[in-house]
Amino acid sequence: MIKNIQNMINIIQNGDSITIVDDYQDFSTASILMNPEKINRIFLESLSKQFNYEMTFCLETQDLERLGFKSLTSEGFIYRFNQKLPKVISKSVVSENDQLIKQISTINQLLDRNSTKDNFVSPGVIQLSCSTIGGVLRRTGHTEAALDLKKMAGQYPAAVILQIEVNQNNRDLFINFLRENNSEAVSLSEIIEYRRQNEKQVELFSTSQLPTAYGDFKAYAYKSLIDGFSHIALVKGDIGDGENVLVRVHSECLTGDVLGSLRCDCGEQLHAALKKIENEKRGVLLYFRGHEGRSIGLLNKIAAYDLQDKGLDTVEANIELGLPADARDYGTGAQILSDLGIKSMRLLTNNPSKRAGLEGYGLKISEKVALIVESNSENLKYLNTKKEKMGHEIPMNEKK
């Protein structure tokens, strides 16, 4: 695995292209990371005859801000959540008829760090995509992977990728295309594992005994070196060999956990998880900061509540605010669990996305354990929406 990453770094440093895939066995999207100087008509024409693709320019938040696109949504959420950014074209080639000239000129304008939003118009020919802070350790996306690889190669974190739709009908054709063009592939899991082995992303700050209403736990306070958030893990008993540990990753919820809001089931889930871990005498509850309102933040969460009072559901309200339905990532949490010595876990959750999010970072989930709490008349619609629109596996038992 490490050899493959080092090989990818050498290829990028030599100015050649590589291909990023989700997984070697099963992938629906592949991204060819290109050297802008080697994008040529023959290659693109050959590609377009066989596949649908989109030319995307990947950049980091500071370049997005320099280009003036932060203001497209409130509080800069457009780059925090990697929402769909506009397609742009350099003003200098708007009247040009040749598509390739338009694309190359726009890319060169984007690569010029003196460029601003005034140099571009939209809609255009190059799709913008902004990396999440922390790269693949925060979000397992191709934009993050491309910029992580560029930085590993000692190059400025800006990249051109050709995003290609791959399915069962054209998968073999695509693999042959890569072979014919001598483009080697790297998977997201390889990049994640390389960074996890070579970079420290969390730091254990302090520990203490913590007696609770459910029993005595040991508290481990961690600091994220990516975004500065502090997180706390409550550990019960001896982790031992780290296998089959009962784990709850709980997203912070001020309104539910602290204020006793009836709009959600967060507080009830928190206490039910602590009780279950105490009963088993071995387990971990990771209280994860930065996930307020499924990571839209407290201010937007209250704004979303207002929209829900006017008839929207929890997903519709987020979208109405220009925010994603669920923007949580679990990379930092996975690193904390690994640091605690956990290798495989029995995950307390009703959310299949949480399972996928943690497994993507190398942690094995041996079992999914349902977390059952009673609903109430105030949160029935919220729970039904999570079940029907977000795939949560929630038994609906209303509290009398």
Structure description:
The chain has 400 residues and is α/β, with parallel strands linked by helices. It has 2 domains: 2-195, DHBP synthase, CATH 3.90.870.10; 200-291 and 328-389, 3-Layer(aba) Sandwich (Rossmann fold), CATH 3.40.50. It is 37% helix and 24% strand. It has helices spanning 2-13, 41-50, 61-66, 77-80, 99-111, 142-152, 171-180, 188-198, 254-258, 266-280, 292-295, 298-309, 314-320, 331-339, 352-359, 380-389, and strands at residues 18-21, 29-34, 53-59, 87-90, 120-130, 159-165, 184-187, 202-212, 215-224, 230-236, 245-251, 283-288, 344-348, 364-369.
Radius of gyration: 23 Å
Shape: globular
Main beta-sheet annotation: 7 strands, mixed
Distance between the termini: 55 Å
| Number of self-contained structural domains | 2
Quick one: CATH superfamily of the largest domain?
A: DHBP synthase
User: Which structural class fits the helix and strand makeup?
Assistant: alpha/beta
